[in-house]
Each structure stands twice: as structure tokens, then as C-alpha cells.
Amino acid sequence: MSQENATPAPQPGAAPEGQSTIWTFEFLSLCAISVLAFSNIAIFYSFYTYLTELGIPPVWRGPLLALEPFTALLVRPFLGRFLTLGNSVRFMRVGLCIATAALLCYPFTTSIPLLALVRVLHGLGFVILVGGLTGVLTALLPREKSAQGFGLFSVTILLPYALMPPFVELVLPYLPGHGAAYAVAAPLMLPAFLLLRPLDRRTRALAQTLHPSHLQKPSWAEVRQGLRAPSVSLLILANLFLVAGHSIVFFFMRDFAVLLGAGNPGMFFTYSNAATITLRVACGHLLDRIDKGRLLFIAFLELAVLVPLFSWATGPLVLFSMAGLYGSGIALSMPLLNASMLQVSPPRLRAYNANLMMVAVDAGFFIGPFIGGALMAAGWSHVGLFCVSGAMMLAAALCILPVGRELRGAA
């Protein structure tokens, strides 16, 4: 890209000139919208139970559960190419409308075809909303505080999973059923709509300071050229391995904890998420001051060793203690991966590549349970599953080794 004689405009992925803090109205608005957006996903912790209550045949329950993330997996790679800083908030508004409409439809859909349609609609709305959200976030974060920003922002994804299940259980006795509980989440989207208007004004003002080339949609040729950069492809692959390994732990840990005699197996995730949130809030400001590649490698290596050791736990207390270490590894790896992608991506491809990282998340949550379920059906034990998960974490660590040199050079 040729340099201009004029003073360079701020680029997506870097805050406006003079801004060195992430604590802006725009960042806090994005965090609030993210909490609300993921709240309408977290309430579906009981969806499998709901399908059972509706009398949906077992063969259809898994596909209906997977249709929402599968839709996101299919749509996100194409969506990213059309997102720019100038239109990201409009995409968020469209996504919110679609997701809200889907939530309101759940109480009235009890047949397999209608449920499938609503799940696809819900997945479409959610991926458009989060795609626009990611596009704005990558533009507004100060580059020198990107890891801290991603770390704090990721807390907004975890909070709904801690808050919404007990909230649903609290209101469920006063509702006709789970379908009505899903519809109750629709009014929660109203504050998000209200925040979009000032956010739109702010992003439009920032977009006007950029060179027009930064606001154009990247061509497929640019996308292909960007993906040929080894660091970009390796970071996406590392994210895929991380999420696939993590999803095996997420979906199969409950049964393992029950086998160990845990009275409340969900406490594994309570301790894990508590460690994740604590570390990101308390130490997030330090993540931009260290060698990202080296710390990522150490975090992945810790997870690669730790996860297979879960099978050596002699009781719930030992397992829950290990959960804190697991949450610490996750707390470091995810924001550092996203910040690293921001650092190695060309300015015009930062929003697109950020969405490719989300594609890796979608694929990981599809691949991990698929492999885990197939291995369990083949007679494998949890010991084998945790070893496979650990191997995926090790593969992620190996992906980071060549990227670390570029990150140090770009720092």
C-alpha cells in the first residue's frame, strides 16, 4: 500500500490520535452490548431438555442444538468481507433485529421444521450482530492496549453464562415453559438498541478521519493474499486447536466430575471462570507489555500438560483445584491470540481476520464435541478424551512458535 503525503489517518485497530485509554464510552458500550448479545445464547443451556419435553425424537435433538452455531460457521467467512468501520453498526442493528425476532418465535415453534427455521434465524442474527461488534472493537482499541482490551472484552462473554442460567431458573416457575423463558430475553435487547445510536455517531466520525482505502471492502484477492501470510493462518489454526480442545473439556467434564463423586459438577466451570475473570481484570493491563508469542506458547504448553492430568484427579476437590489453573491458561491464551492477530494483520484486513478468528471458534465448538462423541461411542474413556484435548493444546503451541518472531519484530 502506497504511503500518502498527508499525515497518516488513524487505522482500524488503532484508537484515534491522542487516545491511550480503553475506558471510553464506545468501549463500555461495546461491552454492554456484548453482555446482552451473549445473554440470548447463554439462556439455551436448557435447550436439550426443552426439546426432550417437546417430544422431539432423540435423533433430531443434536442437529437442532447445533443448527445455531452451524449457521454462524457457514455465514461468518462471507460476512467478514462486507464489514467496514463505516457499516459495522448498521450490521449490528440488523443482527439485533433478527435475533430478537427469533427469541420471540420460540414459544410458538414446537415442530421440527419450525424449530429448525428459528434456529437458523437465530444463528444468522447472532453472527451478524457479533460480526459488526468485532469490526467496531478492532477499530476502537488502542493498539498498545489491544491485549488488555480483548481480555476485558472477553469477560463480557463469560458473564452471561454465569448470570443467565440462575436467572432463568428463578423466573421459570412463573412462566409457561422454557420457550417463554427464551422469549423473556427479547426485551433485554432493548438497551442494546439504545446504545447503537451514539455508537453509530462515534464510528462514523472516526471513519471520516480515515483514508478512503481503509473503508473499502477488501477484495477476495486481498483476502487470499492475507491468508497466505503464515502468521495469519497459524494464528487461526492455533485458535481452532485451542477451542476444539477446550470444547472437549466443556462438553465432557460434567460426566467425569460426576464419576469422581462431585455433588455439583458445574463447580468445575465456576472455579475455572472465576480464575479467568480474575486474571483478566487484575492483570489485563500487563498483557501488552510482555512478549505475546512467548507467553502464548507457555500458556498453551501449560494447558497441554494440565488437561491430560485431569484424569489423575483423585476426587472433586483436586479436580476443582486444577480448574483454577485451567481457567488461568484460558484467561491468557484467548485475548493474546486476538491481540496477536490484530498486530500481524494489514489494516484493511483486521476486521476480516478478527472474524476469521471467530470462524475458528465456531469450527472448534463443532469439531471438538464431534470428535469427543465419536471417541466415546467407540469405547474410549475420559482419560483418552483429555489426552486428545491436551494434544490439541500442544498443536496450538507449535503453531505459535514461528509467529512469535514476527510479533517481536512488530512490537
- Number of structural units classed as domains: 2
Taking the sheet with the most strands, its summary is:
none
- How many individual β-strands? 0
Order of helix and strand elements from N to C terminus: HHHHHHHHHHHHHHH
For the termini, the CA-CA separation is 20 Å
Supply the CATH architecture of the largest domain: Up-down Bundle
Structural classification: mainly alpha
Portion in beta strands: under 5%
CATH topology term of the largest domain? Growth Hormone, Chain: A
Task: Please estimate the helix content.
Answer: over 70%
User: Which whole number gives the mean pLDDT?
Assistant: 81
List segments where confidence is low: pLDDT < 50 over at least 5 consecutive residues. 1-18
Summed up, the helix count is 15
Q: What is the gyration radius calculated from CA atoms?
A: 21 Å
Q: So what's the CATH class of the largest domain?
A: Mainly Alpha
CATH superfamily caption of the largest domain: MFS general substrate transporter like domains
What do these coordinates show?
This protein has about 400 residues and is mainly alpha-helical. It has helices spanning about 25-40, 45-55, 60-80, 90-105, 110-140, 145-170, 180-185, 190-210, 220-225, 230-260, 265-285, 290-310, 315-345, 350-375, 380-410.
Task: Summarize the structure in short.
The protein has 411 residues and is mainly α.
Task: Output the keywords.
mainly alpha, disordered N terminus, Growth Hormone, Chain: A, 411 residues
Question: What order do the helices and strands come in, and which of them pair?
Answer:
Elements: H1 25-42, H2 47-53, H3 58-79, H4 88-105, H5 112-140, H6 146-171, H7 178-184, H8 190-208, H9 220-227, H10 230-259, H11 267-283, H12 292-309, H13 316-344, H14 350-377, H15 382-410
